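step: validate -> pass
step: tokenize input -> pass
step: predict -> running
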Amino acid sequence: MPPKRFDEWAWLARIRRAQGRKGEVFAEILTDFPEKFSERRRLWLVSEGKASARVRQGDVTAAPITPREVELVNHWPHKGGVVLHFAGVESITVAEALVGLGVAIPKAERAPLSNDEAYVGDLIGCELVDVAGSEPVTVGSIEDIDLTAGQAPILMVRGRSNGEILIPFAKSYLRRLDTPNKRVEMALPEGLVDLNESAG
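step: predict -> pass
step: emit ->
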């Protein structure tokens, strides 16, 4: 039986528009492992909506969802995203009804990671701590991640002054990942936090 809580799902993609005349959809890739689509036939479509907002605010207990199981028939990369074709979705009209839905799997079915890796979605809600100096400094809470900005994902951090700070999630900065305890330690270059704080 699939999970019922929003925070128990791993997000693979978000459907953006209908693509083609046979029911295909174009989706933004949210997974760190897009190649795994070739190994998956059973996926779920999930309406994020208010549940997503509640999770971003830390209220995961109040985020029930109703997933819809689908069979992935075909997929291929397209313009930085992925085209997905689900069984039973054979027209533009039916495909358009899927726009805005998340494509997900239960977290229990995710690919295993090494100790110095984390799923991007697990970073949301973690405290970002700068350990470059003699004393650790809490930068803020990670609220979202931008995967489209370049080579490294951009962490969107809510700072102590309530402003947004943009921090590249570069492995060269990373010192320790402790997602079970919601803590990410990075050695950030001097001035990076102040420079990027005005971007919010």
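step: describe -> The CA atoms of residues 10 and 107 lie 5 Å apart.
step: cleanup -> pass
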